[in-house]
Amino acid sequence: MRRGGDRRGQEKGDQTRNTPRKTLVPHRGRCSVSLRVMMTPETPTDDGEVVTTAVMSIVSQLVNPAGDGRGRAEQVEHQVEAAIRVGILSPGDKLPPEPVFADQLGVATLTLRQSLASLRARGFILTRRGRGGGSYVNVQAALTDKDVDRRLMEMSTGEIRDMTDHAAAISICASRLAAERTDAEDITRLRNLAAGLTQAKASSECRLADSRFQIGLAVAAQSPRLTAAMAQVQAELSPLSWGLPYCDSQSIFDEFNQRLIDAIERAEQAAAGHIAEQTFLRRAEILLSRYISLVAMEGEVV
């Protein structure tokens, strides 16, 4: 019996040695799955589902980078507006009931109502009464080229470079981790997000598609903290992007995205990180060049 048992143990060991070792994939928690659903391109609907807790967690972490003395209602208004502008909240999404929404954002219900009233007046959300009613995300109000230039002129060259450096660091990290952790489903999702930029016709569409792709990279990296950081930096960078100079570079960034996805699919971490870095070097170059042009034009006017 012992010899038979030893023989079976030896056969089992031989089978183990001859079986290819599977690559270990990090655990995909519920939060990660919820975030992936968030980054799936959607078509606006008239009866959207209530946004998930994972999505609201990201919204609650968006802050006003100016750090000024705004009241709490204005801060919440900024959080929701930023989430809409970068595509975390999409047209047709139904916001949670006010008591739940207020609790998720850590504010009083009255404060939330003030924020929603302002967003409603500005066209970012709409409210329906009666059965099936509630607050829904409306089609976002597009930034004009003048809006983009005005926001850019409010910054200095040092602030612009610091912002793009920060965004680059997050994108490089997300890209490298995505190359290590993604599966076929993630790759398909990233290609769908990248197609949004390829098919974009207006600067507002480019801005939204670009933000969603960058946040999608962090989602593919399976890191809720990294996703929150990416959403925050996109909320700051997006209003400055895709003005006049960007429109001439749409094909360049589209090519960057395709190369990046290819590197991620091949699990080439170093290559993915390098492409992400090159992408943001180009972004910084465009923004700084536009800033210098605006300063020069302002000097001529004066």
Radius of gyration: 23 Å
- Beta strands, count: 2
* CATH architecture group name of the largest domain: Up-down Bundle
What's the CATH H-level superfamily name of the largest domain? GntR ligand-binding domain-like
The DSSP helix count reads 14
Biased composition (Basic and acidic residues): 1-15
InterPro entries: GntR_C, TF_FadR/GntR_C, Tscrpt_reg_HTH_GntR, WH-like_DNA-bd_sf, WH_DNA-bd_sf
Pfam families: FCD, GntR
Domain HTH gntR-type: 70-140
Highlighted features:
68% helix; 302 residues
Architecture overview:
This protein is mainly α. The chain folds into 2 domains: about 30-135, Winged helix-like DNA-binding domain superfamily/Winged helix DNA-binding domain (Arc Repressor Mutant, subunit A), CATH 1.10.10; about 145-300, GntR ligand-binding domain-like (Four Helix Bundle (Hemerythrin (Met), subunit A), Up-down Bundle). Helices cover about 70% and strands about 5% of the residues. It is built from 14 helices and 2 strands, in the order ααααααββαααααααα. The protein has helices at about 1-20, 30-40, 55-60, 70-85, 100-105, 110-120, 145-155, 155-180, 185-200, 205-220, 225-235, 245, 250-265, 270-300, and strands at about 125-130, 135. The chain has a two-stranded antiparallel ribbon with strand order 1-2. A hairpin with a 5-residue loop joins strand 1 (about 125-130) and strand 2 (about 135). The longest helix has about 35 residues, at about 270-300. The chain is globular and about 50 Å long. The chain starts with a helix and ends with a helix. Keywords: DNA-binding, Transcription, Transcription regulation. This is HTH gntR-type domain-containing protein. InterPro entries: GntR_C, TF_FadR/GntR_C, Tscrpt_reg_HTH_GntR, WH-like_DNA-bd_sf, WH_DNA-bd_sf. Pfam families: FCD (PF07729), GntR (PF00392). GO terms for molecular function: DNA binding; DNA-binding transcription factor activity.
